[in-house]
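Predict the holo structure. Ligand: ribose-5-phosphate.
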Amino acid sequence: MEKILIAGPASQILGWKIAQELSIEVINTENKTFPDGENYLRINIEDETIFIDKEVIIVQSTGPSASGNQNTRLMELFMIIDSVKRMGAARIIVVVPYLAYARQDKIFRPGETQFANVIFRIINSLGINELYTVDLHAPEVLDECSCKAINIDSMKLLADYIKTQGAEDIVVVSPDKGAIERSKAFARNFGENIPVEVIEKERDFKTGEIKMSGSLDLKDKDVVISDDIISTGGTMASAIKIAKASGARKIFAVATHALLLQQAKYRIINAGADVIIGTDSIDNEVSKVSLAKIIADYLK
Ligand code: R5P
């Protein structure tokens, strides 16, 4: 079946790169916000018949940025899916490298909602055939998806990039206990027996404040602190301070989805990181590792 790719407003370059990898046509979109705050999206085409009987791949990350918050990004995604369905697409494949609301996967306080699940229920209702995301915060929420759903692992790509940056005597640091398994898997990409150190992190679920502590064995080591998301940079900055106090030499602050909100970049560099590394799931100045090839390989 012939394929065609739509690069949503949040993933224009990543979408374009995936289309190059697949050697297929790419179409972009136009978007705006109406004066009342509602979103508008139009696929940039003149002929509505071009999707008939085609497999349409939609690439749209849903992270917040200056050009649109995550609610806007989700609305745009829903609008693209709905449009191509209306225009007769035979199959719809959705690629959402960063999935907004993925961290709202559990009930921590009475009266909350597991909104990560709701996002999938909405997507299910729109009728798609396959969904691909990357390093999902809690992969088990994919069970909510009624179609084929894949969580792509970007850790090898990130590790390969770090290896090119001259890191030696590496220790991987997990910024909280919940990320231990992820950090262990990440460490294996640097070789057998790469040590993994863990920081204790406690969050006050009412205020959102975090407390981190620990004394790690990092003397004269290059340290890779790896997380799935950097949002405000609070977790990463605290982990970096602990790593520095524990004797770390060079510090790589690494996340698949480096949202870098508010003062995050300053906080992380000021805490002592030598470099911040993210993927182009979020299109910003630290997205040094492209997901295009790995996503294209899954789509082939
Ligand atoms: C939380 O469990 C996540 O894995 C990240 O550690 C968290 O989202 C980072 O947020 P922030 O950068 O605001 O500390």
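The chain has a mean pLDDT of 96. DSSP finds eight helices and 16 strands in the chain.
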